[in-house]
Every structure is written in structure tokens, then in C-alpha cells.
UniProtKB/TrEMBL annotation:
Pfam family, one: Aminotran_1_2
Native species: Natronospira elongata
InterPro entries, alphabetized: Aminotransferase_I/II_large, Kynurenine-oxoglutarate_AT, NHTrfase_class1_PyrdxlP-BS, PyrdxlP-dep_Trfase, PyrdxlP-dep_Trfase_major, PyrdxlP-dep_Trfase_small
A GO CC term attached to the entry: cytoplasm
Protein name: Aminotransferase
The organism's place on the tree of life at top rank: Bacteria
Swiss-Prot/TrEMBL keywords: Aminotransferase, Pyridoxal phosphate, Transferase
EC numbers, comma separated: 2.6.1.-
Length: 400
């Protein structure tokens, strides 16, 4: 009984949890979501897209279940999906991969990242993350017992700080690259990737990419899969998934491709932790990848660019200057005009006064750099975005 009671309070939590998870704290995103619900606000905090999935996708689930796709699949995913992915990786990304041994279907790209870290890094290994970072990368690395080395993008133009990366690379095991980036909005160009490739080669680093926003590209920016560079081909785990591309964050269908030996090691962990990704959903995603033409993906980029332009226009109008993203569907807005002492206070002010939730910049930076920004997600239906924009403009007109 005593143990049961302990588990319910914070001190109890501290007493029962393992050292491995001791650094995990509830994210600011969760707290903002809670307050947003209480205030009936519009939530542009969490990266959950509420646009509808492709029609064909939903229609492909029931037939898969009726066909009997209800059992465990191979640990690395069903053949139809692995083949569809290999074909797509060749056509869209310029990557030639063997669907039999170089692809693992995972529980979202989150599952792909976690199994990669577990399979390829030892506790105590150092892993480099580029700042602003995606919190799950940081926390997953920490839970796996890695030393995290954070290297900031240059504050003026979010370009890479190669000197700092060079320093961080000494004795490190891996570098994480998120392109298009959340929350930076950066789409790393060929020259930048070549520099990173050389760095990885020189320091014998593993490169773990997160390309989940690969189709969300604006102003003609092109996504380059780092593994297409000769310097990175044999040392890169390429991670992506369909949460964002098909707007199915709850389906948990992701994948990775890597050289055979790495894919095999990661596959073992994937099997151990998850057995496999949901079988009928794997089947439905495979059908959809095969059926959709390039126009779907082009439409995605075009449609989200319009959303970006509209939303950034509103931020400019109300004096919260946006850092215009090149890709993904987040924007960092400068909240210094609000005169608050922290990004948390600024985000709360915007939520309470305008009724729109964002994420405090402190969630993405280890130092003070995050305190002058908040992140809005514009990966939302037009209806949700318009509601948020109206609220922000009304608040702005009232003299924010
Ligand atoms: C950079 C990045 N990686 C991964 C994910 C999660 O992807 P998945 O649903 O495939 O696990 C997100 C979601 O917000 C993200 O922003």
C-alpha cells in the first residue's frame, strides 16, 4: 500500500523512477496544451496536423483487415511496404536501397530514432545535436545514457557553425541531422551537407537523419537526403515516416534505411521493443505510396507554403517578427516586443490574451537563446489557422 501511495505524488515519482529517466520532465508543450484546453484556445503549440489524410489511405485499411493482415509481420515490415519504400526512395530521394535488408519499418520515426540509438550507440558515447533541437532527440539520447553535445546554429541566419561542430565532433559517436528542421525551418543545402559529410568522415561519425518533413518545402528549396552524398552513404541512418506526409500521426508508421549491418542491428531492437508496426496500417500505407502520384507531394508543398505565407503575414502585422521557414511547418516568432522575462511568460501572455497556444522557445534551446522566441505550428487546417489568425489580429489591433 505504501508503494502505491508513493507512486501518486511527485516525491514518490522521484523515488520510484530509474536513473535512466531521471532527467525527463513534462514538456512545456503539454502544459500549454492543458491551459489551452481550459481557455478554449486555438492550439498551434503541438505539432499535430489536423488536415485530413488522403482518402485512398483510409479506404485501404478495412480491406487489409478483411484480407487477414492482422497478425505480426516480419520485424522489418511487410514486403509490399518495403518494396514501395525502396521504389519511392529511389524516385524521390535518389537512394538505391535493397528492400530486403536495408529497410526497417518502425513505430513512427520516433521508434526509428530510439531503436537506432539503442542499437548503434553505447552508454557514455557522445552524440551531437544541432540547436534549436527537437526535444525527443535530446531526451531519447539521454535516456539511452549518451552524452549530448549541443551545437547552435548561428543566430543571425541559422547557418551551421562549423568551427563549433568540429570541436564537438572530437571523440563523438554520432551526429543528428534534422532536415527540414523542427523548429529551425532550415533545409540544409548541398554545400552544408558536404561540409557535414566531411566532418563525419574525418571524425568517423555516424550520421542519423530525421527527414520526417521532407515533402514540406517552400520557395523552391529542395530536400537532399544526406545519405546521397558519397561521404555519408555508408555511415548514415536515414529516418522518415508518414505521420506528417499523410497526416496520420496516430498510425505510427515510420521507417529507416541504413547499410545492411546497421539495419540488421536496428531491426533486432525493433523486434525486441515493438515486434512490428501495425500490420493493416502498413498495408494501407503501401497501397497509398504506390497509388499517389507526384502531384500529391507537390500539392503538399504548395498548400503549406500558402499557409506559411498567410500565417507569417499575420505575425508581421502584429509585430512578432517571424523567422521565415524554408521547410517543415513551424515558425519561430520574436516575442521580445512583449517585454516578458521568459518565453514561457510570453507564450502564456499570447494564450491568455489572444487565445492562441504556442510553445516557448526554451523548449528548443539549452541556453537563453530560446527566451526571445515562441514556436507556432502552421500545419493545421485552414479553418483552424484562420481562427488563430483572427484572434491574433484582434489582439494585435487591441494594442498588444
Ligand atoms: C523532427 C520530428 N521528428 C519526428 C517527429 C515524430 O514523428 P513520428 O510521428 O513519425 O514519430 C516529429 C513530430 O513532431 C518531429 O517534429
Amino acid at each position: 500500500m505504501a508503494i502505491k501511495a508513493e507512486r501518486t505524488d511527485r516525491t514518490g515519482l522521484e523515488r520510484v523512477r530509474s536513473d535512466r529517466v531521471a532527467s525527463l520532465v513534462q514538456s512545456d508543450i503539454r502544459a500549454m496544451t492543458q491551459r489551452c484546453l481550459e481557455l478554449d484556445g486555438v492550439n498551434l503549440g503541438q505539432g499535430i496536423c489536423d488536415t485530413p489524410p488522403p482518402e485512398l489511405l483510409a479506404g485501404a485499411v478495412a480491406p487489409a483487415i478483411e484480407r487477414g493482415d492482422n497478425r505480426y509481420t516480419r520485424y522489418d515490415g511487410i514486403g509490399r511496404l518495403r518494396h514501395a519504400l525502396a521504389d519511392r526512395l529511389q524516385r524521390h530521394n535518389g537512394l538505391d536501397v535493397d528492400p530486403d535488408g536495408e529497410i526497417v519499418v518502425t513505430i513512427g520515426s520516433t521508434g526509428a530514432f530510439a531503436t537506432t540509438v539503442m542499437a548503434l550507440c553505447n552508454p557514455g558515447d557522445a552524440i551531437i545535436l544541432i540547436e534549436p533541437y527537437y526535444g525527443y532527440h535530446l531526451n531519447t539520447a539521454r535516456v539511452a545514457g549518451l552524452e549530448t553535445r549541443l551545437v547552435g546554429l548561428r543566430p543571425d541566419d541559422f547557418s551551421l557553425d562549423m568551427a563549433a561542430l568540429e570541436e564537438a565532433a572530437k571523440g563523438a559517436r554520432a551526429l543528428v541531422l534534422n532536415t527540414p528542421g523542427n523548429p529551425s525551418g532550415r533545409v540544409f543545402n548541398r554545400r552544408e551537407l558536404e561540409q557535414l559529410g566531411e566532418l563525419c568522415q574525418r571524425h568517423d561519425l555516424l550520421c542519423i537523419t530525421d527527414e520526417i518533413y521532407e515533402y514540406f518545402l517552400f520557395d523552391g528549396h529542395r530536400h537532399i537526403s544526406p545519405a546521397t552524398l558519397p561521404s555519408l552513404r555508408d555511415r548514415t541512418v536515414t529516418i522518415s515516416g508518414y505521420s506528417k506526409t499523410y497526416s496520420i500521426t496516430g498510425w505510427r508508421i515510420g521507417f529507416l534505411t541504413a547499410p545492411r549491418d546497421m539495419a540488421q542491428a536496428i531491426g533486432l531492437v525493433n523486434d525486441l521493443f515493438y515486434v512490428c508496426a501495425p500490420s493493416p496500417l502498413q498495408a494501407a500505407v503501401a497501397e497509398t505510396i504506390k497509388a499517389l502520384g507526384d502531384d500529391y507531394y507537390q500539392g503538399l508543398a504548395h498548400g503549406f507554403q500558402l499557409k506559411r505565407d498567410d500565417f507569417c503575414g499575420v505575425l508581421n502585422d502584429i509585430g512578432l517578427t517571424p523567422r521565415i521557414p524554408e521547410g517543415a511547418y513551424y515558425v519561430l516568432a520574436d516575442v521580445t516586443p512583449l517585454g516578458k522575462s521568459s518565453s514561457q511568460a510570453a507564450a502564456m501572455e499570447i494564450l491568455e490574451q489572444a487565445g492562441v497556444a504556442s510553445v516557448p522557445g526554451s523548449a528548443f534551446f539549452s541556453g537563453d537563446e530560446g527566451e526571445s522566441v515562441v514556436r507556432f505550428c502552421f500545419g493545421k487546417s485552414d479553418q483552424t489557422l484562420h481562427a488563430a489568425q483572427e484572434r491574433l489580429l484582434r489582439w494585435g489591433r487591441a494594442g498588444a
